[in-house]
Each structure stands twice: as structure tokens, then as C-alpha cells.
Specification:
Number of helices: 13
Number of strands: 12
Radius of gyration: 46 Å
Bound molecules: adenosine-5'-diphosphate
Shape: elongated
Length: about 450
């Protein structure tokens, strides 16, 4: 039998026995007295009262426990007082206490898990959205909110088309809700936007209910597309640049084979052109290889301090023959505080050779080209200026692009590859320096390279 039932039966028996005994005593001693009946009633009333109080106490305990259970079901798990009864109510309170502790532990673990997932989602570079089986939004991370330019409050529980008017994506989402395969699409979120996205839609599948939602991942692929476009433009530029001297070489060789070889003067003229074109091809290929090793980072930038005068002498000696051909004079100014330069000597020689070569190439004969080295607040500056043809203002922003030339024909005529300034820019960047250009058409151009001391 249950303890509480036994206890109730015991109390009931004791109370009825006591009542019976008291009533018996009353009957024996006071049955003739006037207060006999009121006394009997009093005894009955008292025993009933004691019983009611006991039942009421037990009921209160049950009510208390039932209220606790209700708060648990509402998710408010508060620790419950321990009722030290050694009956079923006591056992129930003990079980509920253990249950509260376990629930609290599980809840804590669930909250920690949720925080972890939220942190991961918030730190993702991809936008993540989750939709339920009806296609309503149930989750969105920060990146997705930024990509779609919405807030969670605006879009929570909304259908996709209410969030973004993109029918292609909406159809893809619908397909994801019916097909277990992952869907992928490359789209613009808005027709006028320059941004491209790759969108993945993966169904959320459970054994019991099949597809009951989808996860949409948005990845911005604009940069990747731009790089692909640049790469294909580069390949077509390179092909074009290589084809031009090759076509010219082939043309002259064919003319020679067709009979021009008989004419010694003409043959010599054509062979000189072929030789020049072959030199240009050679320069182009070396420039391309140099640029590619710079861009891929394969070329190590081993920096050290080296003496400025010897460095300048070496560079000027290389350029001098080209300058002499045009009667161009190279003047050098080295400020007294710049006896030494910190950097990769070979690479910095290439920078000055390219800049001085351009200054000579794009200057009229008998002009002066100036090379100046001095102290800058960040380190040293190397300045190459000429009084040549200058560069139009609209060309300045594109000047350092590969194969960019202001005047293609003129650049070819003077043997340019269109890669010289690109190489300069890359070397300066690998030294964490800066390059500036100032130019005035028909007045001249000044390139300034600033190199940090570290
Ligand atoms: P290129 O081999 O054609 O000289 P660069 O990359 O060295 O290629 O230069 C790109 C273009 O910038 C040149 O084609 C030329 O139009 C212009 N340019 C560079 N330096 C000068 C300069 N000192 N004066 C005038 N134009 C210049």
C-alpha cells in the first residue's frame, strides 16, 4: 500500500478511535448533564477539523509541486524547495528536483550550442538564410542581411519574394523545397547591381517528414569574375602583342623570299626591320616573364643597404648609350644625406632603368633628363623628370596597367612593350613604397618613387 494512503488510514483510525473513546467517556460520565450533546458535537467537530487540516496540508504540497511542473513546461526552470516528507509527495519533490537540475544542464548545453552556431554564422563571409517547409524565412546571418540590405525584423517569417524581388532565385528556392538535389545558380541580386553571386540551395531533410526546409548560401563572386575577365583580357593582349612583331617578321621574310633578296639594299633594310622586331619580341617575353615572377611573388625581395653613388653609376651607364643616340643628357643629383638606400638593389635598378628609358624615349632630341635622389619623411625619394611630350590627364589613372600606352604607334616605334611601368609599380609595391606621376602635355613628366627605410 502507498505510504500516503497508509498514513491517511492511520490518522483516520487514530482520530475515529480517539473520538469514540472520548464520546464513550462523555456518555458514561456526563450523559445526564445538559452540556452532554454540545460536548459530543464539539468532539466530532474537532476530529473532523484535524482531519481536514491534514488533508489540506497534503493538498497544498501537491498544488505547489503542480505549479512548479507548470513553470517547467513554460521553460522557466527554477530550483524547487525540497519537501522532506518521506512519503510519495516527498519522493515526487525529490524527482522533480533532479529533473530541474537535468533540465537546467540540458538547457545550458543547448544555449551554448546555439551561441556557438550563431558565432560561426556571424563570422561567415557567405550569406546564410534558412527557410521552413512553407518557404518562410526562419534564420539569417549578418552577412546575408548586409547583402540583401535588410534587417531581421523586416524579413523574419516572410516569403522569399517579399524579401527580394528576384524570380530566378525564388524559383530556385521552390525547386529546393521539392527536389532533394542541391541547386546552384550564378545571379545578380538586383538587375542594376554590379555584384555577382553564386547561390547554393540545399534542402533540409529528415527521415520522418522528408524535405522540411532549405538553406540558402550566397557567395559574392564579383572579384573572382573580375579576375577571370582580367586573365582572359591579358591572354588576348599578350597574343595580340606577340602576333604584331611576328606578322611583321613573316611579312618581310615572305617579301625577301618573293624576290627582294636579289636587291641588296632592300634586303639589308628588311633584315634590319626583322632584327628590330625580333628584339622587340625578345624584350616582350623577358618583360612578361619578369612581371609574372613579380606578380606570383616567386621573386624574393631580399633587401639590404647599398651605396647610392655606385647604384646610380650602374644605372646611368646602362641608359647612356640610348641617351647618346638622341643627344639627350642625363643629369643626376644625389642629396648629401642619401649616401645609402635600403631595398633590393637589382629591382630598384630595374625601376630607374625603366623610368629613365621612358624619359629618354618620350623626350625630343637634345633635351635633358633629370634623376634626383633625396630624403623623404618616410625614407628616400627617387625622382625622374623630363621635358618631353608629357601625358594627357585622362591617361594618368591607367598608366600603370599592363599594355597601356597613350599612343600605341609611338610606343612601338620607340621599341616599347607597354609593360615597363607595370613592372615599376610592382617592384615599388613589393618594397611597400609609393609611386606618383605629374605630367603636363608638351611640358614634361615627373615620376617620383618613395621608398620606406624599413
Ligand atoms: P612602353 O614600353 O610603351 O613605354 P610603359 O609601361 O613604360 O610602356 O609606359 C606606358 C605608356 O606611358 C607609354 O606607352 C607612354 O605612352 C607613357 N609614358 C611613360 N613614360 C612617359 C614619359 N616619361 N613621357 C611621356 N609618356 C610616357
Amino acid at each position: 500500500m502507498r505510504k500516503i494512503t497508509t498514513r491517511a488510514a492511520l490518522i483516520y483510525t487514530i482520530l475515529t478511535s480517539l473520538t469514540f473513546l472520548v464520546l464513550y467517556e462523555l456518555t458514561v460520565r456526563f450523559s445526564q448533564k445538559w452540556y452532554y450533546w454540545p460536548a459530543c458535537l464539539g468532539v466530532y467537530f474537532l476530529s473532523a477539523l484535524v482531519f481536514i487540516f491534514w488533508i489540506d496540508y497534503q493538498t497544498k504540497l501537491i498544488v505547489k509541486l503542480s505549479e512548479m511542473a507548470k513553470t517547467f513546461s513554460e521553460g522557466r526552470i527554477t530550483p524547487i524547495p525540497f519537501l522532506a516528507n518521506d512519503d510519495e509527495i516527498g519522493e515526487l519533490s525529490e524527482s522533480m528536483q533532479i529533473m530541474a537540475e537535468n533540465l537546467n544542464k540540458n538547457l545550458q548545453e543547448t544555449l551554448e550550442e546555439r551561441d556557438r552556431i550563431e558565432t560561426i554564422l556571424a563570422s561567415m563571409a557567405e550569406g546564410v538564410l534558412a527557410f521552413d517547409g512553407a518557404g518562410k524565412l526562419i534564420l539569417m546571418n549578418k552577412t546575408a542581411a548586409e547583402m540583401l540590405k535588410v534587417t531581421w525584423e523586416e524579413v523574419a517569417n516572410r516569403y522569399f519574394l517579399e524579401i527580394l524581388r528576384n524570380h530566378n532565385l525564388s524559383d530556385l528556392l521552390k525547386a529546393g523545397l521539392t527536389d532533394t538535389k542541391r541547386q546552384v545558380m550564378e545571379v545578380k541580386l538586383a538587375p542594376t547591381s554590379p555584384e555577382f553571386y553564386r547561390v547554393y540551395i540545399t534542402p533540409i531533410i529528415s527521415k520522418e517528414s522528408g524535405i522540411h526546409g532549405v538553406v540558402m548560401v550566397l557567395r559574392n563572386i564579383t572579384k573572382m569574375r573580375l579576375l577571370e575577365q582580367m586573365r582572359s583580357e591579358f591572354v588576348s593582349n599578350v597574343s595580340h602583342e606577340l602576333r604584331t612583331p611576328l606578322t611583321s617578321i613573316k611579312g618581310y621574310v615572305e617579301t625577301l623570299l618573293d624576290g627582294a633578296l636579289e636587291n641588296e639594299e632592300l634586303s639589308l633594310k628588311f633584315l634590319k626591320i626583322i632584327n628590330n622586331e625580333a628584339d622587340r619580341l625578345n624584350r616582350l617575353i623577358s618583360d612578361l616573364l619578369y612581371l609574372s615572377s613579380l606578380e606570383t611573388g616567386r621573386m624574393e625581395v631580399a633587401k639590404k643597404t647599398f651605396a647610392t653613388p655606385q647604384f646610380i653609376e650602374k644605372v646611368v651607364n646602362i641608359i647612356q648609350p640610348v641617351a647618346e643616340k638622341k643627344n639627350v643628357v642625363i643629369e643626376t643629383y644625389i642629396h648629401s644625406q642619401t649616401k645609402e638606400i635600403y631595398g633590393n638593389q637589382g629591382m630598384l635598378e630595374q625601376v630607374l632603368i625603366n623610368l629613365l628609358d621612358n624619359a629618354v624615349k618620350y623626350s625630343p632630341a637634345r633635351e635633358k633628363v633629370k634623376l634626383e635622389i633625396g630624403v623623404h619623411e618616410q625614407g628616400v625619394y627617387l625622382k625622374v623628370s623630363d621635358n618631353g611630350i608629357g601625358i594627357p590627364a585622362e591617361s594618368l589613372p591607367r598608366l600603370f596597367e599592363r599594355f597601356y600606352r597613350v599612343d600605341k604607334a609611338r610606343s612601338r616605334q620607340v621599341g616599347g612593350t607597354g609593360l615597363g611601368l607595370s613592372i615599376v609599380k610592382h617592384i615599388v609595391e613589393r618594397h611597400r613604397g609609393q609611386i606618383q606621376v605629374e605630367s603636363e602635355e608638351q611640358e614634361g613628366t615627373t615620376f617620383t618613387v618613395i621608398l620606406p627605410n624599413v
